[in-house]
Amino acid sequence: MTFSFLSHLECSRTGERYEADEVAGTSAAGAPLLARYDLERVRETVTPAEIAAREPNLWRYHEVLPVRRPEHVVTLGEGMTPLLPTPAYGKQAGVPRLLMKDEGLVPTGSFKARGAAVGVSRALELGVRGVAMPTNGNAGAAWALYAARAGMRSLIAMPDDAPAITMKECLASGAELYRVDGLIGDAGKLVHAAVAERGGYQEVSTLKEPYRLEGKKTMGYEIAEQLGWRMPDVLLYPTGGGVGLIGIHKALLELKELGWLSGELPRLVAVQATGCAPIVEAFSRGARESEPWPEAKTVAFGITVPKALGDFLVLDAIYATGGTAVAVTDEDLLAAQRRLAGLEGAFICPEGAACFAAVDQLRESGWLDGGEEVVVLNTGAGIKYPETIDVDVPLLAKDGAIPPA
Length: 405
Ligand SMILES: *Cc1c(COP(=O)(O)O)cnc(C)c1O
Description:
This is Threonine synthase. It holds the Pfam family PALP. This protein is α/β, with parallel strands linked by helices. The chain has a domain at 83-109 and 212-387: 3-Layer(aba) Sandwich (Rossmann fold). It contains 13 helices and 13 strands. The chain has helices at residues 39-45, 48-52, 87-93, 112-125, 138-150, 164-172, 184-198, 211-226, 243-258, 278-285, 311-321, 330-344, 350-365, and strands spanning 6-11, 17-18, 33-37, 83-85, 98-102, 130-134, 153-159, 176-180, 202-203, 234-238, 267-273, 324-328, 374-378. The chain has a six-stranded mixed beta sheet, with helices on both faces. A four-stranded parallel beta sheet has the order 8-7-6-9, sandwiched between helices. The chain has a three-stranded antiparallel beta sheet with strand order 2-1-3. Residues 110, 112, 138-139, 206, 238-244, 302-303, 349, 351, 379-380 line the site of pyridoxal-5'-phosphate.
């Protein structure tokens, strides 16, 4: 039985073909490589009903994932996260059919585990013994932990003010960790130089290897499956490097080609913070690529990416689906984080909260008319950011007593 129908890699700019079964970085044009599958054979081999009967993790889609042999799968049980209605928030926002795909329940507490699971598994299969990457925190933690599970080394560099818990996750897993006085791009330069100097590591920076994207695309497969093989009208995604959005778009196109998805594609919305909004700025000019954002700063760490390698793919996905790009302030996203906890009992990450704030904004501007079915991607758990939540912790109860009501 064929586990994966991976056929080749393709340059996302030129369409040039590359061999899939050797360690790969970017294309000759310096662009991300996309994994391509023999979808016709996938269609002949498996049905959506058969997939529905499989274990509830992302490996249920193994025919359209790049790992060729099941024994190379490195897993902590990631995937098949709940798609939850959030009716109370939706009612306040004027978008009653509001749903949240909750990636806070994934191992390591963020959806970065999807990319790490598939990326590390495929690296293991291709004989890689160490992975190296710059990160804003969550990706480093996820790759360090999955690398540990695979028996691989990891070298991680992150901005000095990245969430402390992500540094501790790296260290606990035995990663070699460096804190960098700068942003993710500065960390990237150090990693690149170290890999060139040392050898023995594969650089797995965002979109600089093809398989992290394949892990993240499974969010698109799951949403389709969970809605009965159809799509919502609108999908909002907190966009940093954009891998999740590009991945979901890729999944939708594959699903269409497989004939498993009917109807229109959802309008894809890239959500950023006003402190770092290069995609929003590019979209507002109708541009196909973004300009580097100066002095990027927001409490939503995971989306602090001043210039993404895959920016043109994010913008393509937005234009192709009739979507949009919006920026929200830190104040608004922190308020949305609290409101969601109070109204829905969900303590989500600041990046996911940015998308809920964006729902309010898009409804107010009239871009959403309120009749749509809208899915928000919450990309991580609020408990990974214990310092970020905007609440005052009360003083000790006076004289050890709780006052009468
Ligand atoms: C990395 C990250 C993002 C942004 O992901 P991309 O797919 O690279 O745009 C969003 N939210 C959280 C919590 C993250 O860790």
